[in-house]
Design brief:
The protein is an alpha/beta fold and 254 residues long. The chain has nine helices and nine strands. Strand 4, helix 4 and strand 5 form a beta-alpha-beta unit.
Length: 254
């Protein structure tokens, strides 16, 4: 009887707690016009590309807003095209991987975590992912798997190395039309209400930023809270989430 009462109280507590979303804006640091993203709520995380002329500037400016910054680390894709200059490659030796990560982090000095830019090939491979996660563990950085392939091993290997980690659930503007942005945004909200939290990734497209500036203000009406990535990771929500469901995650062609 006592166990039943405790179980009921837990259920009530969970139902009263607002659902949460964490939102990442990828590909920051490439273009000055993307600075309009700084008008978004400070709980929105910026994933900044390394080795760009605005990488360090955007990193410092975001931190001044008390906004979380993560390194948007270029990784090898299956297609192998449109890759960044200092991309992590499957052909690299472990020392080369570590040095490339160190150089990238030096240009995004305020990063508290990492997510992958592209990486549909590299995130499937055990050795480079293990080297990467060992390094992140040593640096005290968390990892977000952008899930550019459903075969990614990145999140699993991160957890094996003691790296706090989660994965992207929804690409909001993979098709950057207003109709698709709205559809994917509401999908993100539904997932957060169903499972307690969800992680979305968007890009600094003008139409995306315009949409988010309006619609992030309506989250409270939906009973949803916009939180920092670290809040979700620190709460242990991701472990609870993964034990309850194996959510189908749509891949991106990167």
């Amino acid at each position: 009887m006592r166990l039943l009462l405790i179980s009921c109280l837990l259920c009530v507590s969970l139902s009263l707690r607002a659902s949460q979303i964490a939102l990442i804006i990828d590909d920051m640091g490439n273009n000055q016009k993307d600075a309009i993203a700084f008008t978004l709520p400070s709980n929105v995380t910026f994933a900044i590309l390394p080795n760009k002329h605005l990488s360090k500037t955007f990193s410092k400016r975001a931190t001044a807003q008390q906004r979380e910054v993560i390194l948007h680390m270029p990784m090898e894709s299956l297609a192998g095209n449109n890759q960044e200059k200092d991309v992590l490659l499957s052909s690299m030796l472990p020392l080369q991987i570590v040095q490339t990560l160190k150089t990238a982090l030096s240009t995004v000095p305020d990063a508290v975590g990492v997510n992958n830019h592209m990486g549909s090939r590299l995130t499937q491979l055990t050795l480079p992912m293990s080297v990467t996660m060992e390094f992140l563990s040593e640096q005290g950085l968390f990892f977000v798997d952008s899930r550019t392939t459903k075969y990614s091993k990145a999140e699993v290997i991160a957890k094996e190395n003691g790296v706090l980690s989660t994965k992207r659930n929804v690409f909001i503007d993979h098709i950057p039309s207003p109709e698709q942005i709205d559809k994917q945004f509401h999908r993100l909200l539904r997932l957060s209400k169903k499972y307690g939290y969800a992680v979305g990734i968007a890009h600094p497209y003008p139409q995306t930023l315009e949409y988010l500036q309006v619609n992030l203000q309506t989250l409270r009406e939906h009973g949803i809270e916009l939180v920092k990535l670290s809040d979700i990771l620190a709460s242990g929500s991701t472990d609870t989430y993964h034990s309850r469901t194996k959510l189908k995650v749509t891949s991106s062609a990167h």
